[in-house]
Amino acid sequence: MVVQFDILRKEKKAEKQYTQSIRYEYENPNESVANALRQINRRQERKDIKGNPVSVIKWECSCLQKKCGACAMLINGKPGLACDARLAAYKTETIRLAPLRKFPVVEDLIVDRSILYENLKEMEAWLAGQPELREQGYEAAYEGSRCLQCGCCLEICPNFYAGGNFFGMASMVPVARILEELNENDRKSLIKEYKKHIYSGCGKSLACRNICPAQIDIEGLLLNSNALSVWKAGLRRHGGV
Amino acid sequence: MEKINIIGAGLAGLSAAITLAEGGYESNLISLQYSERAQSVLAEGGINAALDTMGEGDTVNEHYEDTMKGGGMLANPVAVRRLTKNAPDTVLWLKSLGVPFYQENGTIILRNFGGQKKKRTAYAKSSTGKVIMNALIDGARKYEKKGLIRRYPHHEFIKLLLSKPADGQKICRGVQIKDRYSDSILKLYGIVILASGGMNGVFPGMTTGTTQNSGEVTATIFAQGVALSNLEMLQYHPTTIGISGKRCLVTEAARGEGGRLYVVRNGRPWYFMEEKYPVLKNLMPRDIVSREMYLTVREKECEQQVYLDMTGLKDKVWEHKLSDLRNEILYYRKLDPKNTPIPVEPGIHYFMGGIHTDEYHRTNIDGVYAAGECTSLYHGANRLGGNSMLGAVYGGKTAAMHIMKNAEEKGHDFAEKTKEESMESYRAESMESLGEESMEAPAEASEEFVSALGNILYDGLGIVRNEGRLKFAMGKVSQLEAACHNDREKNRILLAKAMLNSAIIRKESRGAHYREDYPDRQDEYYRKITLARYEEQQLEVDFVQIQGDPGISSE
Ligand SMILES: Cc1cc2nc3c(=O)[nH]c(=O)nc-3n(C[C@H](O)[C@H](O)[C@H](O)COP(=O)(O)OP(=O)(O)OC[C@H]3O[C@@H](n4cnc5c(N)ncnc54)[C@H](O)[C@@H]3O)c2cc1C
Ligand code: SF4
Ligand code: SF4
Ligand code: FES
């Protein structure tokens, strides 16, 4: 089988991005974009379709099994994990690879996602007191522990931009775990932050839910956290009361 | 006092940073990528501690004995005593940081895991590593905001900054790192804790771990004079499947719940483990299962592939206990393990050997500590499932505690100093050059070279070893050495030779090290550590005595 990658590239110190097209042959029906990039980078001679030399394609990866969020990028325009994207699943003859657009591009497919971490710091997202994990809160605490900080949900969200006041689901998910484990008193200041940076800015279209590569129950956590911080506790999804 | 520099932001690095911050000490937390990307997030099964919540009368002593015996009596007994004694407090510390371990009425529920006789493993579904990491990341954030922990999250370790006074003992003054985003090189002064994980990149594509753990740190510091030990001890997990670019773990729970291994012999399935080991059957320790798989596919009339048959498991088990595993296999293999046996092979899963430390996690060089999977301390010749996360969390903590205790004894006034140092001036200071040292980043080892070396080592250091194959591999490594382009490649050659040499001189079989030419264990000669050193351009691998009395018979 053969596919053409159109890769949007950028040198480190350069401003301008450019596209390079590379032909790639493969046999394994499960071949992923991640492995294709590894194989291309391993070639002794890398050439584009016109025969021009191609430098090593820079991208980030770590686990290669959908569990670390490192390899998020735009694949045919849609945010996803390169190690989760099967070449055979794309019906097109070319597959376009580009860096996520909401974050500054470092080089090629690598973006600087530090805003995710800055936002959580800004919200002071940590346990201020001793955790009080009630049995009915277990599922939510577990689910809220699963975020990869990959940024796919932010990429798709119409309301998020880096540096803006709305922090998106990449902040909501970890905060949901903390809210669940804090007692009512210790929860107060985080609730304030939650209202300011998550509740008030979210249009609730839930485009983010379908894109999350970890398939986190974003809707459930959102309802749960909204219930804990804004509405009446009786409306909680996870565990109920 | 300068900040403490921690290389690696997985379980060991985070645990060290938080412990230091709790004591009011500042640290730099340096990693190639953010903590969410560290290998620790992949850990599934759980973490061990004799909390004895299941009414089985479990004790610290039994945890100690299981760990020592599982490790072929090669681990440091003093360190293992401390590890197992402090395991319950370590797990409770994690709980206090908010880790949602599975609990009933506030009590942590333990499960059977890793070949231990009693229920001793705390867990959270099949994502124990992920939930622990998440709580530690949130816990560290508090101190990041206060400035007690400073992250360098896309930074690569370059080398230790060593000085050598007249008396000849090397001292570590700090560490040189490179920002992979801006390419700038920084020097950070102060004590160093290495927490850089296992040496996956020595065997590229052949391990269950991450690509991030390239083995570069271990190779570099070895060439700089930090001693390594027990390098021949590699754990092969019996059940992994090859996926695009790596090996994916099929959890032990698959066999725990009734999965059976077979090969096709004369056209029919032969459940070889059940026949050869009628009592424990498919649940024999990892090294034995892996070895039997290796030997069985080489027997007469047997086909080359081992299968894991889970078709007999009840619907309830699939639903409640193995749903993640089923989804994974469906995803990667397009096979439903509920209806079809799946082909499995052993794969490299854990490095018992690594940086040699004492029970306080000090290396042979003053000012350098090491913790987590990059070290060799608690697991001897084989590691029990669930003990490595414990070793990483407790190890990071222990290194941090020792640094603080030492500092207090020396009477430094840290609080004063930390206030003075603003981030900006610190940055300027760390940019200042140390005289003549190079501020250039070294050239990287080529992928081609790394994979050629990996293949040679894999052939030599397989599940079943012998002198001939090991020496053949050594010869190949020497050939490859001639084609070395740069220092990083040379360092990798050194590490490779040290690994092979350790396996060559251990003329016995123990734990994960199985020599078909010396199939028996020889306590009299070989209940010793293989210690590898590189000094004055000389590579040496020798046996050294294990300090401390294990207090139990080795049978
Ligand atoms: C699939 C799988 C399942 C497992 N299941 C279990 C289990 O159930 N129970 C258990 O106890 N153990 C388990 N383990 C083992 C356990 O997860 C690891 O041993 C442990 O998490 C290691 O933690 P660590 O902090 O030492 O290293 P890691 O988490 O590997 O972190 C290493 C850190 O070092 C950094 N680093 C590496 N190289 C460099 C460099 N050159 N420059 C700068 N930084 C660098 C990385 O960025 C990373 O932050 C499992 C392992 C795997 C792979
Ligand atoms: S629900 Fe809509 S607005 Fe809210 S985070 Fe998701 S995509 Fe953004
Ligand atoms: S919520 Fe999902 S999509 Fe968003 S950062 Fe976390 S894992 Fe990624
Ligand atoms: S490499 Fe970890 S999610 Fe793709």
Report low-confidence residues of chain A grouped into runs of 5 or more: none
What's the CATH superfamily of the largest domain in chain A, by name? Alpha-helical ferredoxin
Q: Structural class of the helices, strands and pairings of chain A? A: alpha+beta
What's the overall average pLDDT of chain B, rounded? 92
> Cα-atom Rg of chain A, whole angstroms?
20 Å
Number of domains of chain A: 2
Report the CATH architecture of the largest domain in chain A: Orthogonal Bundle
Can you tell me the number of structural domains of chain B?
A: 3
pLDDT averaged residue by residue of chain A: 93
Uncertain segments of chain B are 418-436
CATH topology of the largest domain in chain B: FAD/NAD(P)-binding domain
**Overall CATH class of the largest domain in chain B:** Alpha Beta
Give, in spatial order, the strands making up the sheet with the most strands of chain A.
Answer: 2-1-5-3-4
**What top-tier CATH class of the largest domain in chain A fits best?**
Mainly Alpha
Q: What is the CATH topology descriptor of the largest domain in chain A?
A: Fumarate Reductase Iron-sulfur Protein, Chain B, domain 2
Shape of chain B: globular
Number of strands of chain B: 24
